[in-house]
User: What shape does this take?
Amino acid sequence: MIDNLKSYSVFAEYYQSLINHRDHAGPIARLLKELLLPSHRKLLDAACGQGNRSYFEILPGMSIFASDGSEQMLERLKADKALFSKYEQVAENQWEDLPGFFLKWGKFDAIFFLGNSISHASDLDDIENTFYSCIEGLEGAGRLIIDMRRWHMDDMRGHLIEPGRVEGKRRLLLQETSNGSQVSIFDFCSYDSGRQIIDYFIEKDGEPIASVGFSYLMVSPSVVASMLRKAGFRVVFEGSPDYYPYYVLSGEK
Assistant: This one.
């Protein structure tokens, strides 16, 4: 099985360029503005990656904590001193260690796993256990917000797929010039045993310099909604906002 954390240790150097190219940060902050209540002031981004400056522009006055399982991704966040200083705390933390995180930093008004991060779970039990941990880490009427790719059942193949994603073909995502060299990032999509596999290939002046793979557990939104309810949440939002690239679910304690 692909080790996603190990892959992020390699991909961290190129991640921000790709995210900036796709402009996910602004839509994520807008989503939170629409789903959070005025009483939700203490927030935890539990899959923060390299951080999101848009939070502090669209959600002024919030107390935002950040955690991520990748040391290398957090190093990139911390290197941006201006952004790092805006967070209350930034900590390396695995999802299975969330109870200890809540013990140290207290309960939150909202917790979110965005950017299709929940799909990095190892299996359904991993997702379910994370939901149980989160409901214990939320204040009353606190909200958990997650998103995922818009998985769709392909009856011909008998498994979920990502609609519109070209399978089995290398695709150019980004090409930019940095320090006099041209850096190109390609991806390649495949499916294996209920997972989407995305391989990234990085080239510098046409020569390969790095390659990594990420796996995404494909689970239908209805199954995830049922898991939220089982953990004790009341599902208050399900859907795909027209400005947002993923399917979103939000549960309230």
About this structure: The chain has a mean pLDDT of 94.
